[in-house]
Amino acid sequence: MSEPIESPPRLVLTGITKRYPSVVANESVDLTVRRGEIHALMGENGAGKSTLMKIVYGVVRPDAGYIRWEGRYETIASPAQARRMGIGMVFQHFSLFETLTVAQNIALALDTRMSNAVLATRISEVSERYGLPIDPHRLVHSMSVGERQRVEIVRCLLQEPKLLIMDEPTSVLTPQAVRVLFHTLRNLAAEGCSILYISHKLDEIRELCDRATVLRGGKVSGTAIPREETNDSLARLMIGSELAECRLEPNKTGEVMLAVRELTQAAADPFGTSLADVCLDVRAGEILGIAGVSGNGQKELLAALSGETLTAAGSIELGGRPAGQLNPAARRALGLTFVPEERMGRGAVPPMSLASNALLTGARNGMVRNGLVRTDSMREFARDVIARFNVKCGDERSVASSLSGGNLQKYIVGRETLLKPKVMIVAQPTWGVDVGAAQLIRQALIDLRDQGVALLVVSEELDELFIVSDRLCVLARGRLSPPVRLADTSVEQIGLWMSGQFGAQAGEEATHAAA
Amino acid sequence: MLRLEPRTSPSHAMAIASPVIAAVAMLVTGFLLFRLLGKDPVEAAYIFFVKPLNSSYGLGELLLKATPLMLCALGLGLGFQANVWNIGAEGQLTMGAIFGGGVALWLGDSSTWWGLPLMLVAGVIGGMLWAAIAAWLRTRFNTNEILVTLMLVYIAQLYLSYLVHGPWRDPAGHNFPQSRGFADAQTMPLLFDGGRTNWGFLFGLILAGALWFFSRRTYAGFRLQVAGLAPAAAAYAGFSEKRNIWLALLISGATAGLAGICEVAGPIGQMQQQISPGYGFAAIIVAWVGRLHPIGIVLASLLMSLLYLGGESGQMSMALPSAITGLFQGLLLFYLLAADLFITFRLRNVRTTGQPDQAPAAPVAAASSGGPGATPLESSP
After folding, report:
1. What is the DSSP secondary-structure string of A231-271?
2. Which residue of B has its CA nearest to A416?
C-alpha cells in the first residue's frame, strides 16, 4: 500500500504520563508508529510497556499527554472505541472459551453482528489470506497454544485493523511457529497495517522490527533501528548496564544421580497429558535441559519427579536408589531439591514470613530438632538466602506475598540452592523475572553444576536452555526425545522436535518466512 | 452501584479488633431488640450481662460454662487452621461423656485414686474414636468431614439416649432416663469452695498453653498451618495431607471428649439424656471469635459463657424466651463474619457507565481537527 509522503504517522504519543498510587508507570513517554511499520516496544518487566499499551487500547486513561491518531488528536475512552478506530490487540493470555468453536468465540468478541455462516466464510477468507490456517468449526479446547493464538489474531484481523498490538506473542510458540507468525506479520505490514510488537527477546526484535522504542523505569531510554544494533547495545538500553554473561565451561561429570526409567503414567487430570515411556539420566555436574511448550507433560513429569504423584518404585532413581514410591519429603532426604513453576502458594506460603518459608523445605537442614522449630537457625538461613541472592525485601520477617514475583523467585531458588542438594530440579527458572535477576539465577544454577550437583531444568525459553544446558531433551505430547549434546544440535532441530518428531526426520525443514 | 473490592493491604489491627466490633454490634442490636419487645433495655442489659457476674457464685458459673466451650473450641480452632472442618464437636463431646461415664458406672462406689484419671482418659479416647471415623472416611474415601462429623452428632446423641433409657437406667430412679449418680471419687474436684467450678477449667487453661506452644514452636504445628494456608505448598514440601487430617481430627476429638467427661463428672454428676446445651456447636463460634488463637479462644469462651448465663437470667427475671441465647450467638457470629468481610474487602460506589459500545463515535478530542471518526472498516484496501 503506497502512502502519500506527507501523510501523518499512524500513531503519535506525546508526553504520556500515568501515575499509580505507589509507582509512576509511564513518564512523558513519546512514541511514533508509522504506517506499515513493525515497531518494537522493549523493556524489562515493570518498565511500563503494558500500561502504555493499555492506554493506546483504551483500557487505561493517561494522566497527561496526547494521543494523535492519523494526524488527529483523540481520546480513547474504551477498547470498543479503540477497535472502531482500527486498533486491534492480541493479549499475552488468551481469552477464549474452550467449550466453544472458533467461530462462536469470534462472534462473541465482534462489535458488529454477523450471521454465523457469513462469519465462518470471513474467518476462512482471512485465515487463508494471511497464512493462518484455522477451521472455524473446531472446538478451542482441542487446539494447541499456537493455534489459539491464530484465533486471536484472526479475530483482530476481521476488524481490518490499522494498528495491531502484539503482547509477547512468541512466549508460547515453537521456533517454527514463530517463523510462521513473523511471515504473517511481515505480510500485514506490507499491506500498510502498523504493528506494535512488545517483547524483551532481543534476537526476535532485531530480526523482525523496523524501529524500536525502549522503556526503562517508565521513561523512554532510547529509540533504535534494531537491525543496526547488537544484542548487547539493545540490552544496555533496556537495563542500563552491561549484561554479565553466563559461561558454561566444560565440566567433568560424575555418576548418574537422577534417572527415569520407562516412566509411563496416565494423567490424573482429564485435560492433562499422559507420560509415555520417558527415560532420562542426569549425572553429577551436568545440567539437562528439557525444552517444550507447556502442556506437553511438563506438569506431570515434574510432579512425578518431585514425588507429588507416586509412580512405580523403579521408574525413578535418586542417587541409585529406587524413589518412585517416596513422597517429596523422603526424596528431599535423599538430597533432592525442587523449584516449582508456581511461586506463590506452592513454592512459598504467601502469608508466612520468609523465615517460615525457609522452614517449608529446610526442616532437614538443622531448622528442626526433636520436633521443635529452631527459630534462630531458620531466620539465619533466611537472612543468608536474602543476602546471597540479593533478594529485595524488608528482612526475613517480611511475608512472602509482599515480594515481587522476581524477588520471590530469587528467594526460592536461593533457598533450594543453599539446602545443599545433590540433585536439583528447576521449573521455568526465570519466568517473569527481569533480565538482571534472570542472569543471577542462571549463574547460580551453573555454579551448582560446577560444584557437582546434577540439575534438571524444564523451561519454555529455548534461549535460556541453550545458555545453561549441557544436554537437551524435548518433551512433546508426553514423550521425551533422546538427549543431545548442545554442540550437536541447533534451534531448528529442537524446534522440530518440539512438534513431536524426534530422530532422523531432522532434515524436514519447517516453512521459512521470506523477509 | 455498590461493589465489593478486595483491599490491597488488609489491616492487621482490624483483624484483632473485629471480634470486639462484633460484640459491640451484638450489644447494640440486643438493646434495640429489647426495646422492640417492650422491655426496658437498660434493665435487660443489666440482667443479661451484669447480674450473672454480680456474685462469686455467678463468676464460678461463668468459668464452669466456659470450660466445655473452651475445651472444644481449642481443638476445633487447631483443625480450622489446617482447613479441617470438624463441626461435630457436640458428638465427640457426647461420646467422651459416654466412654468416661461408662467407666464411672463400672467403678460404682469403689473409691480408688485411679478411677477419675481413668474416666478422663476414657473420655478423651471416646472423643478421638468418634472423630477418627470422620478422619478415616475422609482419608480413605475422600468423604466430606463437615457432613460426617455433623451426622455423627445425632448418632452419638441417640446412642446416649438408648443407654440412659435402657442398660444404664437407674433401677431406683423412678423410670427417669438417667443413670445412678457418680460416687464422690468419680466426680471432678472443685476448684474453689462455694461454686461449681472444677478442675476442668484448669485443664482448659493448660490446654490453651499447650496448643499455643504446639502451633508456634513445633514442626507438626507448622505443617498444619501450611496445610491450611497453602495446600499446594504443603504438597510441594511433602507434608502428608492424610497425616494432617488425622492429627487435626484426633486432637479436636480428644479435647471435645475431655469436655464431655468433665461435664458429666462435674456439674451433672450422672448420665442423662441431655448433657450439653449445644456447647460443641457454640464452640465453632468461639473458635472464630477467638481468631483461632488459644488466648483469643479463652476470652471468647468467657463471652459465650456469659451469653448462656444471661439467657438463663433473662428467662428467669424477664420471662424472655429461651431462644434468646441462640439469638445472641447468631448475632455475634453474623457481625463477626461481616466485620471480617470488610477487613479483606471494601465497599465502593461504582458509577454505572453506559454500554461502552454505545459511546459516541466522535470522542472528546483535545484538539479535534476533523469530524467524527469514520468506522475502521471503511479505509483499508
Report:
1. HHHHHHHHHSSPPPPP--------SEEEEEEEEEE--SSTT
2. B237
